[in-house]
Amino acid sequence: MGARSVGRECALMILFGVEITEQDAPAATRAFFSQVAPDSGLEADEEAREYAAQLVAGVASTREEIDERIRRASTNWRLERMSRVDRNVLRLGVWELVQAVPRAVAIDEAVELAKRFGTEDSGAFVNGVLSRVADELG
After folding, report:
1. Which of 67, 85, 91, 124 has the fewest C-beta atoms under 10 angstroms from its C-beta?
2. Do residues 32 and 13 make contact, with C-beta atoms less than 8 angstroms apart?
3. What gap in Å lies between CA 6 and CA 133, rounded to an integer?
4. What are phi and psi of 22, to 5 degrees?
């Protein structure tokens, strides 16, 4: 698995933890890499760690804007009713789309995370919502 893919996986775990513990993003990132990552079996090299930290900081600093984009794109689903995994995968995907990560890469990576950590329906759900966000962004 490439460094950025590992970084995305780490970022998802960190954002999930931030949401549960309400810890701030920088502290959660430090705690993850010092306490969780060594025992997780993840091969998080320096590039993966840096990308994870960038993702977490980016999502945290623009969360309201990201959440609004998700709300507009997810008809019939309130953000609060989405699973934590789906919600945070979507946040990562939206942030990457806004940062001009190529559409196919951002969506494919998010769908893979959703399939790996979410429910049977998560991949299709994430694909649909992120496709709408990407269309909105142009």
Report:
1. 124
2. yes
3. 24
4. 60, 25
Q: The tokens 């996986």 sit on which residue? A: 9
Residues 95 and 63 sit within 8 Å (Cβ to Cβ): no
Rounded to two decimals, the pTM is: 0.93
Question: Do the beta carbons of residue 18 and residue 91 sit within 8 Å?
Answer: no
Which band of pLDDT confidence, cut at 50, 70 and 90, is reported for residue 38? low
**What ranges make up the beta strands (E) of the chain?**
none
44-48 long-range Cβ contacts below 8 angstroms, 24+ apart: 44/6, 44/7, 44/10, 45/3, 45/6, 47/3, 47/4, 47/7, 48/3, 48/4, 48/6, 48/7, 48/10
- How far is Cα of residue 112 from the mean position of the Cα atoms in its chain? 11
